[in-house]
From TrEMBL:
<dbReference type="Pfam" id="PF12724">
    <property type="entry name" value="Flavodoxin_5"/>
</dbReference>
<dbReference type="InterPro" id="IPR026816">
    <property type="entry name" value="Flavodoxin_dom"/>
</dbReference>
<protein>
    <recommendedName>
        <fullName>Flavodoxin domain-containing protein</fullName>
    </recommendedName>
</protein>
<dbReference type="InterPro" id="IPR029039">
    <property type="entry name" value="Flavoprotein-like_sf"/>
</dbReference>
<feature type="domain" description="Flavodoxin">
    <location>
        <begin position="23"/>
        <end position="171"/>
    </location>
</feature>
Amino acid sequence: MENNHINSPNYINIPNNSQKSILIVYKSKYGATKDYVKWLEKALADRQIACDICQVDKTPTQDFCGYGAVVFAGGIYGGELSIAKSLKDFARHLTEGQKATPIPNKLATPKLHCILIGLSSPLAPHQSTLDKNFTPSEQESIEFHFLQGRLDFGKLDSVDRERMNAYREMLRARASRTSEQEALLENDAVDFASKDSLKCVIDSLVAKGE
């Protein structure tokens, strides 16, 4: 079982409005998402940006207006994002909070980011995945980042193993395949996770916090 927090206290400190810290909410099934969260936490700390971290089922319900950004991270399984419902509920909570405020302050509302971790290249088309998980209006309010994870066929549960077998059959039927797709066919374990791929996420978070 994973810890509720990674190198963070067993509670969430809601910062005051002068701070620009970040809340990271994640769900990790096989470990890649958790590794990305640890790498992101370290990269932000190196830039003197504080962050709080919690698993998706431990997300606090306090006022989040003190955060500069809230990042949700989770895996993609069969085209479905593991943290989609929690992110949508969170976004709805923020919207309702703004409506309940006599004078809504959009600047005080944290920017929402979503890190989606799968096996496909970040450069591949992902609009169909977004459309499957989010409405057009929801997509407008969230900044998405696609990263690659890893696969160990021997550790997959029965549902994910069946999905992977079906995906492999689809790949075999293709006339041409990428080198990464060939790796998925030839190996039972592949690791595409990379610290360097977080640069786009870090750059965006740092820019939003300046």
